[in-house]
Structures are given as C-alpha cells and as structure tokens.
Amino acid sequence: MKVLDSIAEARMNTEDIVQVDGVVTTGLGYWGGKGFYIQDETAGLYVYGSSWPAEVKQGDKVTLIGQVSAYNKELQIQPTSLEVVSSGNGLPEIQKIDASGVNEETQGELVTIEKATITELAASGTYGTFEFKAEDTEGKSVIVRHDNRTGSNYEDFVRSFKAGDVISVTGIGSRFNDTYQLKPRGIEDYELVNKPAVYTDIFLVRLVKIQRYHLNPVGKKRKSIIRWMDPRRRLQVLCTQNLSF
To answer: What's domain 95-192's superfamily in CATH?
Structure first.
C-alpha cells in the first residue's frame, strides 16, 4: 500500500492500493449506492460503495484505502477501508469557471458557472432526473445533469426556473464516457441571476401575506402592504395602497 499526500497523486495512480485523505463535499447516494465525492486543495475524486463502517456526511474528513480505477471513464476509488478523521470541516473553495472549464482538470471538484443560460431543459426518464445545457456568456455550453436521488427533481426545479433563465449553477465536475457534465447537489446549487425588477402578471402570482397598519392615528385611512410571492422566481413584490374603513 502506498500512502499518498494528495488526491491529485491518487488520480495518477491506478496500479497500486493507496491511502488518501479528503473532505466529503456532497451527500451520500446522490449518484448511486452510498457514493460521494471528496476533495482537497489539489483535486477531487468520486468514492463508490454500497455501505460504510461509519456514518459519513458532508464536511467529514475521511481516510480511504483502496484502488483508483475508471468507471464510464470517470476516475473513482472503491475503498476497502474508510475512517472518519474529523467532522464539520469547511468545504474547499468553489472554483468559478466557464462552461469549457468542466473538463478533466476539474473532474470531481466543486465548481460554479456564473451567468449561464438554461437551454434544452428536459426530464430524463420518469423518476424526476433532468438535464439541460448551461450556456455561458461566450456561447460555450455544458450538460447539467440533476439526479432525483439528490432529494429534488424536475418538478421542484421548474417551480423556480425555466428555459431562457440566466442562472448561477454550482456542482461537481464529472464525466460520463466521452461527455463532461456538471452535477448539482440539490436545488440550493442554483441561483437566478436575471431576476425581474417588476412582476406584472398577477395571474402567475400567489398571495402569501397581507399586513395593515395605521397611516394616520387620527384619521380613518390605513395603508395596506400586500406581499405577493412568485413561486417560480422566488420574487417578492410589494404593493401599497390607501384603504378607508
């Protein structure tokens, strides 16, 4: 067994049984079994397994022993030993890239594409997994694949986002055979960039709260503050008007 100093070294060694450390950057089982991703300051790597001797969660630092190999051309380690060294660790700094930055260099790492336009949005299968292309400001694009096993699905996504929206999207740089893709960890990995300043179509708006207070304690007029929430865009609209009672 070879004890390695970094994940980058582990990615270059597919011949030996190795020992390597890393911080868990995702939940478990988002892409099958009880697999998860780890990362350090040098690289990231997928960890595949169906069970572990200890509970593992995001932010744990783990020590793994196993052999690195490629599955569908993505490098992974299938450990024969796993130890949780510490918990509550901060995640590695998320790299900001363009669409072409999802490649071999960022495979297994947390990355963010800012100002990406959603195109070709479609469900994949019948269980809630979906895909779309994230097109950056230079016209380059990459496939974003959102797995329903993350705990959120296509219906959850389209409540807040749609084709044509400009978003910031974070996820794990990944590869499936000859296709590079970005794999978000959940709905929280998306943020709408092109939030409209004013929402005009009240038929698409849900009234969530009404508050009233005295505008003039002596008079009879009150001002009503009405808050609407657009469920698709998470946009709150304020409308005020004077009411007499």
So the answer is: Nucleic acid-binding proteins (2.40.50.140)
d(C-alpha 95, C-alpha 111), whole Å:
5
pTM: 0.79
CA 103 to chain centre: 17
Sheet of strand 206-214, all strands in order from the earlier edge strand to the far edge: 206-214, 221-230, 235-244
pLDDT at residue 220 greater than cutoff 60: no
Alpha-helix runs per DSSP H in the chain? 7-11, 154-158
Choose the CATH number for 2-86 among 2.60.120.380, 3.30.565.10, 2.40.50.140, 1.10.10.1100.
Answer: 2.40.50.140
Query: Which amino acid, one-letter code, is at 119?
Result: T
What six digits make up the tokens of 240? 């005020």
- Tell how strand 95-97 and strand 130-135 pair up: unpaired
Full DSSP string of 183-217: E-SSGGGEEES---S----GGG-EEEEEEEEES-S
Say if residues 49 and 37 touch (Cβ distance below 8 Å).
no
pLDDT at residue 50 tops 90: no
